[in-house]
From TrEMBL:
PANTHER family: GALACTOFURANOSYLTRANSFERASE GLFT2, RHAMNOSYLTRANSFERASE WBBL. It holds the Pfam family Glycos_transf_2. This is Putative glycosyltransferase. Belongs to the glycosyltransferase 2 family. Residues 13-147 form the Glycosyltransferase 2-like domain. It comes from the Bacteria. CDD domains: GT_2_like_c. It comes from Desulfovibrio sp. U5L.
Length: 319
């Protein structure tokens, strides 16, 4: 029998759900089964239409009993995207006085010691204000990325760290330089949010983690990888459901979000990145016969020039 988990009163977990109650409940169960559990778990629902709200609330009422963890479900009232969807949960943890916020994708399964390891890493190195886990692919058990990613501002290429490594080889791996922490498991000291603000709601989907970490690094806040924190990631569930509602919408948001990020972080590079990405993507998609995706790329670039974002709210949220 497992020992009763230790409840860390300084930590809160935030999970975003959109039409994915099965994944969310699996993630919730894994967090509650940890050697350390948080004081609170906030599940933010982005206007699900699959009955997620009632199903998740019923599960909590039936299964989260005699638990030191307070589990709350917030109804966002619509699909507001990632940043505007997750921010209310972060804000709730901050208002409760939480010292750490652990942000998890709903399609992740944290290892039992994952939170314990993150807390040890953060407390052992207070200057590491944003910490990432070892994210492992669900299908083959190999490393997806070690904490986060590198981002080349000239080519806009994103590179995983220690990709495809075996979990058993982790002790011999050294941390690599990174530009941002992977948002599917991001552990943040609450004071960082209070200092630089929450996720930027200009971004409906993609680049919100990079934008957040870029702002953090400008304040000389260190990004760190906690290799002992293992999180299994099924990957892309919400994105696939989004594509089912509007074909090409993920492609649209990846392109417009990159332009917004480049404009804000590296404005001197915007003309170069704009032309390079537009020409490169259109030619590549046209050669593959993907005229449907060519349309979404052109729409994204046109909307960027016109100052429109189909679903972004266009502002940075404060705590």
């Amino acid at each position: 029998m497992n020992a009763r988990p230790y409840c860390d009163t300084e930590c809160g977990v935030v999970i975003l759900n959109w039409n994915g109650h099965a994944e969310t409940l699996a993630c919730l169960a894994a967090v509650l089964a940890g050697t350390n559990v948080p004081a609170s778990i906030v599940i933010c629902d982005n206007g699900s239409t699959d009955g997620s709200l009632s199903i998740i609330n019923a599960y909590i009422a039936a299964h989260v009993v005699d638990s030191p963890v307070c589990v709350t479900v917030l109804d966002n009232g619509g699909n507001k995207g990632y940043a505007a969807g997750i921010n209310p949960g972060i804000r709730k943890v901050l208002e409760a006085g939480g010292r750490y916020v652990w942000i998890l994708n709903n399609d992740t399964i944290p290892d039992r010691r994952s939170l314990e390891a993150l807390l040890q890493c953060s407390r052992g190195c207070p200057e590491a204000g944003v910490v990432g886990s070892t994210v492992v692919r669900y299908d083959d058990g190999r490393v997806e990325t070690a904490g986060g990613f590198r981002y080349d501002k000239w080519t806009t290429k994103i590179t995983s760290l220690h990709a495809n490594a075996r979990v058993e080889d982790l002790p011999g791996l050294s941390p690599l330089p990174m530009d941002y922490i992977y948002g599917c498991s991001m552990f943040v000291a609450a004071d960082i949010f209070r200092a630089i603000g929450l996720f930027n709601e200009k971004f409906f989907l993609f680049y919100e983690e990079l934008d957040f970490c870029t702002r953090a690094k400008k304040r000389h806040i260190r990004l760190s990888w906690c290799k002992e924190s293992i999180v299994v990631h099924k990957g892309g569930s919400s994105r696939k459901r989004l594509e089912e509602t509007a074909h090409g919408i993920s492609n649209y948001h990846e392109n417009i979000s990159n332009l917004i990020y480049t404009r804000d972080a590296f404005p001197f590079l915007l003309p170069f990145v704009f032309v390079k990405r537009l020409v490169g993507r259109v030619l590549r998609l046209a050669a593959a016969g993907r005229w449907d995706l060519v349309r979404s790329v052109v729409q994204a670039y046109g909307d960027f020039l016109a100052g429109r974002n189909r679903a972004g709210r266009g502002r940075r949220s404060r705590p």
